[in-house]
Specification:
Structural class of chain A: mainly alpha
Number of helices of chain B: 12
Number of helices of chain A: 16
Strand content of chain B: under 5%
Helix content of chain B: 55-70%
Strand order of the largest sheet of chain A: 1-4
CATH architecture of chain A: Orthogonal Bundle
Distance between the termini of chain B: 50 Å
Shape of chain A: globular
Strand order of the largest sheet of chain B: 1-2
Oligomer: heterodimer
Largest sheet of chain B: 2 strands, antiparallel
Largest interface: A-B, 48 and 47 residues
Radius of gyration of chain B: 20 Å
Number of strands of chain B: 2
Strand content of chain A: under 5%
Largest sheet of chain A: 2 strands, antiparallel
Distance between the termini of chain A: 24 Å
Radius of gyration of chain A: 21 Å
CATH class of chain B: Mainly Alpha
Shape of chain B: globular
CATH topology of chain A: ABC transporter involved in vitamin B12 uptake, BtuC
Number of domains of chain A: 1
Order of helices and strands of chain B: HHHHEEHHHHHHHH
Structural class of chain B: mainly alpha
CATH architecture of chain B: Orthogonal Bundle
């Protein structure tokens, strides 16, 4: 990711070359963000804390999608279904084994990863649009299976089961405030993993496949192997996100969403944030969640003005806002907010000669 | 398998398949001319159904602005569909020319959400079961058939009408594409945009035309479906059944769309004839199981062109 580095900015030691965080002001920004998020129970109300939780698990899901779609170039319309798998896996492990969160979360992620591998198998034969269709099939088949198989365990036609509170030794994460620390730690870990994937052999192979799969194959990249790894990692992240969401909402199932619209929402976040950048999932996730909220508030405001149409207004503003913003981004800024951010940084550095 | 039900289900499946085929035709048309896979087709269909419903007297409570018979309302809906199709092509898809596949897919998905939002804003979220129809929903044909339950196959008149209309539209398309100059120009454009341009075809206008026609097909499909189920926001989800049909038939084949549509309709209906309740329940995902099988065995579909990649 050594893009757009200013001239004269050299690495003078191996340590510096390998550093994940390069500049002191990056440390300041990151620590400040973590501090603000972690102290949310002190300065914010319950709503803020819940929203930060929501942002955390959404960003994790989008990070996974970013590895599959942004880096490897394989469109996935099934990320929400994989979240469902992760949520169910963690919930069942916690309910029937009493597994603590440090065990149930990674196990759930692993199970989801394996399910992701199954639906990644069509990438053996097809790519591009056809592969998107295979993931669309996952998006329909997985929720259907949770409703119609193992009804005693998965909730059957209720479409949901309740999820126990996560425990870690003596700590019980019984409130959104406590849960916040769990999601933030998970987010931190997945972020480090995602950053590292993007700058190692694995990430470079992914990018090679995205840019030209035939050329990548000629260079010795095992296409199927790496595509399956991308599917595995994407589903793994979705599993973590789904488990976190299930534990924070205390129930899991198709009644609570996890549908095609959510998968589209994740893809939209990726586009709005910036495809194939590490910053993208954060910018996109935060932007879309805030936008969704603005649409909701604005909808309530307009609904109060025109009571006769309140039900129409309340349901319609969110799809209109998201659809419109997504289309505008695709037309005017297809590289997303992350690219805009690098432009702003460059302009600031070159000041007063930025234009 | 519940064999008594099979003849009835085969008949229903073929008739349902006709509507799926009609929906698939619209998607294939756009794909053929501009290589865009239109995820918003279901929403165009819903829009067409709602516009017709609204002009045909909608609520039935005397507050409506227009109260036209079905045919004029249909014609107005067709006009609206043409305008919407042209607008979509001009303002949403033309800036996407030359963009990667993901951007185009997301553009149509964003469009779908946007249309859904606008429809629910303008026409309301309540499904309206009352849709003007030449037949009452319970009007049926009884065709004597020895093996069937009660000795009769029961065909809903609306369903037969839909199937007829779908087949008629398909034939009209085949004629249009094979025997008119515009149809020839559209086929040429689908082969190669640059070549088509170099022989003097106005490629953007052909894209616009294909979107307008797709809008019209979607409207016809929407009205036919709404006659069966009433107008509701759920109408758009029917296109999710059409996707497997399209891939089964082959993305760029009109004949494939029809064969695929009828096959998927048959599969859905036959699954429902099973005596096991869990198998019956799987009717909603059966098309996607078919889709996975197609993708693994023959990704280009039955009649699709196999794409050879050259560097």
């Amino acid at each position: 990711m050594a893009v757009l580095r200013p001239s004269g900015d050299f690495d003078v030691s191996y340590r510096q070359d390998m550093a994940l965080i390069r500049y002191p002001w990056h440390w300041v920004l990151i620590l400040a963000t973590i501090l603000v998020a972690a102290t949310a129970p002190l300065w914010g109300n319950a709503y803020v804390v819940t929203t930060i939780n929501q942002i955390a698990y959404t960003v994790i899901a989008v990070q996974g999608l970013n590895i599959l779609t942004g880096y490897t170039g394989q469109i996935s319309l099934g990320q929400a279904a994989f979240m469902l798998v992760g949520g169910y896996a963690s919930a069942l492990l916690a309910t029937y084994w009493g597994a603590p969160i440090w065990l149930s979360l990674p196990l759930a992620a692993l199970i989801t990863g394996l399910v992701g591998l199954i639906f990644g198998l069509p990438s053996l034969r097809v790519k591009g649009f056809y592969l998107a269709m295979a993931t669309l099939a996952a998006q329909f088949i997985i929720p259907w299976l949770t409703r119609h198989t193992f009804k005693d365990y998965l909730g059957g036609s209720d479409g949901q089961i309740s999820v126990p509170m996560p425990t870690l030794g003596p700590i019980v994460f019984d409130s959104a405030e406590k849960f916040l620390y769990l999601s933030l730690v998970a987010l931190l870990i997945t972020t480090v993993i995602a950053f590292n994937i993007s700058r190692t052999r694995l990430g470079r192979a992914f990018v090679a496949i995205r840019d030209n799969d035939l050329a990548a194959e000629l260079l010795g990249v095992n296409l199927l192997g790496y595509k399956l790894r991308a599917f595995f990692i994407a589903a793994l992240f979705a599993g973590i996100a789904g488990a976190l969401r299930a534990h924070s909402e205390r129930s899991i199932g198709t009644e609570l969403g996890y549908n095609l619209n959510e998968s589209i929402l994740f893809l939209g976040m990726l586009i709005i944030g910036g495809l194939g950048t590490n910053l993208g999932p954060f910018l996109g996730g935060v932007t879309v969640i805030i936008l969704d909220d603005v649409a909701l508030q604005f909808g309530q405001f307009v609904a109060a003005l025109f009571p006769a149409y309140s039900s129409n207004v309340l349901t319609s503003f969110r799809p209109i806002f998201f659809g419109l913003v997504l289309m505008l981004f695709l037309i005017f800024e297809p590289r997303g907010l992350a690219y805009r951010w690098t432009l702003i940084k460059a302009a600031w550095r070159l000041r007063p000669f930025s234009r | 398998m519940n064999w008594v039900l099979v003849p009835q289900q085969i008949a229903t499946g073929i008739l349902n398949g006709g509507i799926i085929a009609l929906i698939s035709l619209g998607v294939v048309l756009i794909f053929k001319s501009s290589e865009i896979f239109n995820f918003a087709h279901g929403h165009l269909l819903m829009l067409g159904a709602y516009v017709t419903w609204w002009f045909a007297g909608g609520n039935q409570d005397g507050t409506e602005v227009f109260n036209l018979p079905l045919i004029p309302a249909f014609l107005i809906a067709v006009l609206v569909a043409i305008v919407v199709g042209l607008l979509i092509e001009r303002f949403a898809l033309r800036p996407m020319t030359g963009q990667p596949l993901l951007s185009i897919v997301l553009m149509t998905l964003g469009l779908a959400l946007f249309i859904e939002g606008v429809v629910s804003l303008v026409f309301g979220v309540q499904p309206s079961a009352v849709f003007p129809s030449p037949f009452s929903p319970s009007a049926v044909f009884r065709v004597p058939f020895p093996g069937a339950m009660g000795g009769f196959i029961i065909l809903k008149k609306t369903l037969v009408l839909s199937f007829g209309a779908a087949m008629l539209a398909s034939i009209a398309f085949a004629l249009f594409f094979n025997f008119t100059k515009t149809g020839l120009a559209m086929r040429a454009t689908s082969e190669d945009h640059e070549l088509a341009r170099s022989v003097g075809l106005n490629v953007p206008r052909i894209f616009g035309l294909s979107w307008a026609i797709a809008g019209v097909i979607a409207t016809v499909g929407g009205i036919l479906l709404a006659m069966l189920t009433g107008a509701s926001l759920n109408l758009s989800t029917v296109v999710l059944v059409a996707f497997p049909a399209i891939l089964l038939g082959g993305l760029d084949s009109f004949l494939g769309a029809i064969v695929g549509g009828i096959t998927v309709g048959l599969v859905q209906a036959l699954v429902q004839a099973s005596s096991n309740i869990e198998v019956r329940n799987s009717a909603e995902i059966a098309p996607y199981v078919v889709l996975l099988i197609v993708l693994v065995i023959r990704p280009e579909g039955l009649f699709g062109q196999k794409r050879i990649e050259r560097i």
